[in-house]
Here is the input.
Amino acid sequence: MLDQLLATPGVQERCCFGSSFGFLALHGGLEAGTAEIAQAAAVASNASVYAVVQPDEFRWHVPSHAFDPAQSDVLDAFLAHVECVVSVHGFGGLRGDDDRWITGLLGGSNRALAAELGARLREALPGYRWIDDLDRIPPHLRGVHPGNPVNRARFGGVQIELPPRVRKTTSDCAALVGALAAVALAA
Here is the structure.
């Protein structure tokens, strides 16, 4: 499925190598602001970044676990280079959740990193609710599938599901990028 997406005119695969900490944005363009946030955090921390960015009019959601590195030499090289990853995603909240504009989820296989990132985000963005307890995250948003690129790095990583407000509010987005960069620099 990834190979078909990457072969689609207008879809861009972007990668820049920095440190062994990496940021992913698998649904750039589709999930507003995610590629830009991953890129900004990577630049601020000299980390590596990999993104797939779709054109504005295109809406093809390839599930994260279907991003098979065997279908992309660039993704394969990225995953070979990094030891730990934060994968930046966007979502619109939980059903029945009155706080859907301000609730973020921290899934993925590296639970220690998720807890550390959660603590930094709570400090940097106290007006948001950051959930890093897997039992409180719906199964389809946990990001723990072994095929998911966030879990293929040596030490795994965190899949962060960002609510709309933090991706659209300039000051909040800057605080988010700062927290992501601080975690990357401390790793």
